[in-house]
């Protein structure tokens, strides 16, 4: 039986492990954290990610399909309407969301007992004995640095973001709201939970002694339910991260028997909601490539040829989406953008992003079941 070691137990690493286990490989996941948990935030799953998870055989009980919503300004005036039914008809799947912990749990449950080893930090390739090593160790990947020591480090996108999951006593709709250089998103999750984030243009590294008070002061004048969500959030659950990306594309996602995957390969800003989705795509393509041939080198070459152009194009598109969207600060530019967007019919806005979310994954070849007498 062929063996793979996956370095990193996040969404991409676990998806890769599920994919390789499904094609009959023995897989070990090495995760440096003491527990396999996920930060207290949600993740949007676009049709390309849903198809990929279906291909991996993952069923998500706590997935929340998103109903109709829209894009607004800070006062709540609608800029565009998002038609959920039109979106589903055009893309073949809904836009959905899930708590990251629920997605991590579903992926973990699809793996054999003992497959995941937590509290195991990998600082280099020495001692990793496997047919394939998958570097899924995040945006600041130590393995990427070892393999491409001269490659530029990730760069700051220009925006910082707060994220949280909270609960409100009433239902809320999917929404994104823009102001000059700022964005707030609201995504309902399963069981009455709400995932929300606030991103804005700022210098990197700035932190606040009382983050919740800062958010109240900065965003308390925005439309409901934004002030209500801030007030309902437990301060200790607020996450604050500067948003970085791998600004210089890698020349390859493969070196020897090591394949980079997810943020380690193509970290991107979140302006298209595709970071985790692209990592899941990586996992399916890697499993399919390795299932097609006994030649591991040829399979990894195929993985690189399939994934690098697409994922790097999504990085560029994400950067551009930020520039014309939540990072736009010029008042005239904002007025023109909003005015043009208001003229778009809902059926047309439902088609936006089809080149990304319309992707269909390859299907890995499953090993034949053993013969019975």
UniProtKB/TrEMBL annotation:
The keyword Oxidoreductase applies. Residues 127-317 form the FAD-binding domain. Keywords: Monooxygenase, Oxidoreductase. Residues 3-58 form the Pyridine nucleotide-disulphide oxidoreductase N-terminal domain. This is 2-polyprenyl-6-methoxyphenol hydroxylase-like FAD-dependent oxidoreductase. Pfam families: FAD_binding_3, Pyr_redox. One of its GO terms (molecular function) is monooxygenase activity. InterPro entries: DHPH_N (IPR039648), FAD-bd (IPR002938), FAD-dep_Monooxygenase_BioMet (IPR050493), FAD/NAD-bd_sf (IPR036188). It comes from the Bacteria. SUPFAM superfamilies: FAD/NAD(P)-binding domain. Transmembrane segments: none annotated.
């Amino acid at each position: 039986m062929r063996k793979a070691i996956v370095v990193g137990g996040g969404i991409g690493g676990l998806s890769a492990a599920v994919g390789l286990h499904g094609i009959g490989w023995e897989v070990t996941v090495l995760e440096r954290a003491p527990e396999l948990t996920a930060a207290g935030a949600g993740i949007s799953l676009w049709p390309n990610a849903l198809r990929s998870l279906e291909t991996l055989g993952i069923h998500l009980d706590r997935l929340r399909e998103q109903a109709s919503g829209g894009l607004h300004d800070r006062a709540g005036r609608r800029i565009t309407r998002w038609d959920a039914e039109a979106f589903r008809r055009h893309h073949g799947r809904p836009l959905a969301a899930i708590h990251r912990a629920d997605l991590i749990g579903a992926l973990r449950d699809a793996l054999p007992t003992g497959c995941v080893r937590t509290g195991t930090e990998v600082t280099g390739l020495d001692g990793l004995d496997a047919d394939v090593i998958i570097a899924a160790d995040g945006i600041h990947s130590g393995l990427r640095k070892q393999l491409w020591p001269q490659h530029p480090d990730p760069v700051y996108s220009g925006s910082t973001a707060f994220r949280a999951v909270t609960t409100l006593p009433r239902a809320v709709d999917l929404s994104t709201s823009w102001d000059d250089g700022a964005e707030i998103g609201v995504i309902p999750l399963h069981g009455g939970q709400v995932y929300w984030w606030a991103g804005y243009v700022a210098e990197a590294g700035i932190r606040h002694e009382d983050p919740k008070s800062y958010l109240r002061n900065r965003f308390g004048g925005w439309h409901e339910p934004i002030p209500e969500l801030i007030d309902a959030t437990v301060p200790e659950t607020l996450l604050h991260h500067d948003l970085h990306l791998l600004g210089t594309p890698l020349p390859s996602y493969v070196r020897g028997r090591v394949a980079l995957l997810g943020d380690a390969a193509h970290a991107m800003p979140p302006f298209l909601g595709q970071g985790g989705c692209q990592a899941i795509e990586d996992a399916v393509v890697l499993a399919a490539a390795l299932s097609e041939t006994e030649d591991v080198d040829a399979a990894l070459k195929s993985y690189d040829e399939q994934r690098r152009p697409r994922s790097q194009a999504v990085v560029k598109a994400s950067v551009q989406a930020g520039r014309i969207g939540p990072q736009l600060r010029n008042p005239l530019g904002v007025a023109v953008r909003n005015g043009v967007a208001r003229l778009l019919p809902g059926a047309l806005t439902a088609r936006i992003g089809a080149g990304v979310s319309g992707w269909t994954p390859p299907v890995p070849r499953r090993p034949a079941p053993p013969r019975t007498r």
